[in-house]
Design goal:
flat; NTF2-like_dom_sf
Length: about 60
């Protein structure tokens, strides 16, 4: 089957955070795209399903 087109995207992310049980968590994310450039001759990476991924380590900001 045909692979989806690859691209370089340019934009801005805006996040809001909230503190839950002493941990800062992302509450919302807004992506505003300014521009998208298609990539010619793009080959997609191997498909990874959620069961194949590991959780990212938790980080704290000292609070």
């Amino acid at each position: 089957p045909d692979a989806p087109e690859g691209h370089h995207g340019y934009g801005q992310y805006r996040e809001t955070y909230k503190k839950v049980d002493g941990q800062w968590l992302i509450d919302s994310v807004l992506l505003t795209r300014f521009w998208m450039d298609p990539l010619e001759s793009w080959t997609p990476a191997e498909t990874v399903t959620p069961s194949d991924t590991k959780s990212a380590p938790k980080t704290t900001n000292g609070e």
